[in-house]
Task: inverse folding
């Protein structure tokens, strides 16, 4: 008996030594042992709570203890009923003042009337709280051992039912305590198993719980450690004040959780796509930097924003930017499927996005996770590709027109030579003014010329990718001029080639550069149709930085300042029937060859179109 008495009264000191001495913990069952908590370690956030814990922390009310978040599950190791009253009275006082529903399940030694009397001393209006049903004080027989036995499933569900009822009545959550001194040795293991299963329920709910354990009734350190192992931390009286000690096993688990959440947060922050979490009301509760940047917000500004502010009218089938309608429609078939829509940035501009929505359950409510991919760059690329495709189709149409125009000359010549041949054949051989062989030969030359024109025109539209090889620019200019020789003669334009550059080696696509020269020459010819003096000069010259410049100079009507400003923009033209794609395409080709193209007025009247190309480096 003496040993028992010594054991009982030495428990606090023995427990403190277990909490603070790692060597002793290692000798004992390490999974039960606790380490002293730092104040800032009391609140351990979960993944979604990372952004919201600070707003959701609750005042514990116990002297010296910091605030705790919803889900805090504590145990108190006490020696006498006075210890319970010292902590639980201010604990419930704080809960009542914070609009929480409170439940106190008392032991047989304390009793409900003693608990009520203690509360009246600290809370004068306690009877009003009792009458309004904001606090219930029950005997353990009316809660834990209803019908004469302990049913863990019924008790666990009972707490959730009380929480559900409390929230429906407008309370913020449930604050509870239950004493365990009624437990027999036979019921102990069953109750510890119940505590282990209850812990995650409390941790994910709007519940704050203190389970009280009498050191006298524990009867040994194994039960003390059993009790502590299933709680966030334990309250133990030390030096006339209550101290909190963290479970060592739980501490390691939560440290691993923090590390895991840190990695998860880094992953979310590192994602190039936007990630947004919203609650059932459509309010943003979590977002990453990519989402904030996408819609023009600072990260802290995006938190708390209604999702409707990111949705323009009628977006995604949502009228009037309603977040509730958005969520309702999402639940009817948007989950797990990607959709494209125009969302809205902070300044009101449209942001093309592709988005998917999924739902997750947390804290007994449904949250929605939206992954958003910015389509702005993709749309720009698609528009550019479409523009290039359009330019190419228009260019093909232009080439077809040019083909008909250019091939008309050799066809007309062929027809003329064949007509002459027919006449010669009707005349006697000795009276023929020309040789039939000569006229047929000249017709054959025109056939070859027509075939050459067709081949070159076909090359203009058949090449898909640039094929840059070593080329002589002067030869390309001469070949391009040959393609438009007939149209120049028909328009009465005198063409002069002044190819004076000493080095004309360039790395270029043969067909594409011919296309540029043909386009510039045809434009120059058309510009001089109404001019009295029709002279076209194509010249080359070496300039600084290893570049060669080509000038196409005409004597037409010239260009206005406004026309020069928009000259190379797609679908901008100075021609009555022009489409405005030739010069745009020419600029694209020249720039793809690392050159520049521009237009200047001709001092003697008309215009000068100039483009530069880098000279190719040749091996000696």
Result:
């Amino acid at each position: 008996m003496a040993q028992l008495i010594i054991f009982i009264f030495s428990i606090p000191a023995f427990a403190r030594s277990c909490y603070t001495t790692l060597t002793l913990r290692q000798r004992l069952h390490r999974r039960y042992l606790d380490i002293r908590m730092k104040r800032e370690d009391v609140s351990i956030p979960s993944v979604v709570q990372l952004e919201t814990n600070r707003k959701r922390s609750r005042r514990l009310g116990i002297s010296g203890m910091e605030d705790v978040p919803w889900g805090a599950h504590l145990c108190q190791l006490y020696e006498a009923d006075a210890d319970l009253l010292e902590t639980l009275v201010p604990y419930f006082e704080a809960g009542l003042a914070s609009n929480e529903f409170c439940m106190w399940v008392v032991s047989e030694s304390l009793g409900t009337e003693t608990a009520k009397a203690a509360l009246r001393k600290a809370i004068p209006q306690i009877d009003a709280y009792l009458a309004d049903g904001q606090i219930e004080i029950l005997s353990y027989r009316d809660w834990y051992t209803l019908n004469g036995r302990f049913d863990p499933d019924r008790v666990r569900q009972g707490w959730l039912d009380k929480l559900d009822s409390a929230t429906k009545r407008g309370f913020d959550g449930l604050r509870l305590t239950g004493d365990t001194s009624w437990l027999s040795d036979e019921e102990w293991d069953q109750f510890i198993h119940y505590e282990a299963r209850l812990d995650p329920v409390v941790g994910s709910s709007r519940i704050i719980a203190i389970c009280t354990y009498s050191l006298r009734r524990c009867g040994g350190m194994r039960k003390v450690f059993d009790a502590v192992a299933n709680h966030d931390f334990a309250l133990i009286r030390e030096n006339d004040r209550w101290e909190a000690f963290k479970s060592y096993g739980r501490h390691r688990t939560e440290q691993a959780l923090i590390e895991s959440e840190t990695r998860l947060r880094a992953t979310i922050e590192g994602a190039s796509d936007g990630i947004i979490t919203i609650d059932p009301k459509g309010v943003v509760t979590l977002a990453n930097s990519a989402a904030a940047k996408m819609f023009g917000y600072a990260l802290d500004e995006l938190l708390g924003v209604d999702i409707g502010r990111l949705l323009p009218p009628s977006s995604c089938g949502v009228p009037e930017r309603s977040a509730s309608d958005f969520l309702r429609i999402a639940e009817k078939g948007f989950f797990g499927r990607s959709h494209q829509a125009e969302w809205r940035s902070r300044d009101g501009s449209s942001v093309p996005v592709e988005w998917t929505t999924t739902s997750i359950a947390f804290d007994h409510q449904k949250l929605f996770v939206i992954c958003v991919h910015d389509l702005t760059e993709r749309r720009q690329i698609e528009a550019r590709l479409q523009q290039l495709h359009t330019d190419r189709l228009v260019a093909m149409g232009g080439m077809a027109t040019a083909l008909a125009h250019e091939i008309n000359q050799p066809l007309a010549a062929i027809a003329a030579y064949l007509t002459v041949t027919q006449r010669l054949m009707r005349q006697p051989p000795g009276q023929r003014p020309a040789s039939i062989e000569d006229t047929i030969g000249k017709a054959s030359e025109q056939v070859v010329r027509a075939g050459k024109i067709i081949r070159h025109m076909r090359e203009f539209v058949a090449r898909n990718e640039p094929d840059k090889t070593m080329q002589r620019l002067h030869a390309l200019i001469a070949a391009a001029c040959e393609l438009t020789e007939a149209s120049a003669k028909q328009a009465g334009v005198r063409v002069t080639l002044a190819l004076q550059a000493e080095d004309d080696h360039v790395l270029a696509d043969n067909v594409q550069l011919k296309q540029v020269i043909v386009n510039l020459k045809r434009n120059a010819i058309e510009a001089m149709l109404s001019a009295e003096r029709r002279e076209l000069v194509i010249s080359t010259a070496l300039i600084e930085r290893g570049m060669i410049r080509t000038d196409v100079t005409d004597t037409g009507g010239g260009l206005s300042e406004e026309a020069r400003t928009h000259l190379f923009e797609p679908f901008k033209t100075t021609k009555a029937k022009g489409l405005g794609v030739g010069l745009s395409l020419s600029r694209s080709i020249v720039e793809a060859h690392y050159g520049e193209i521009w237009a200047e007025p001709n001092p003697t009247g008309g215009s000068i179109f100039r483009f530069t190309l880098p000279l190719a480096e040749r091996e000696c």
Remarks:
- The CA atoms of residues 42 and 68 lie 7 Å apart.
- The longest strand covers residues 350-362.
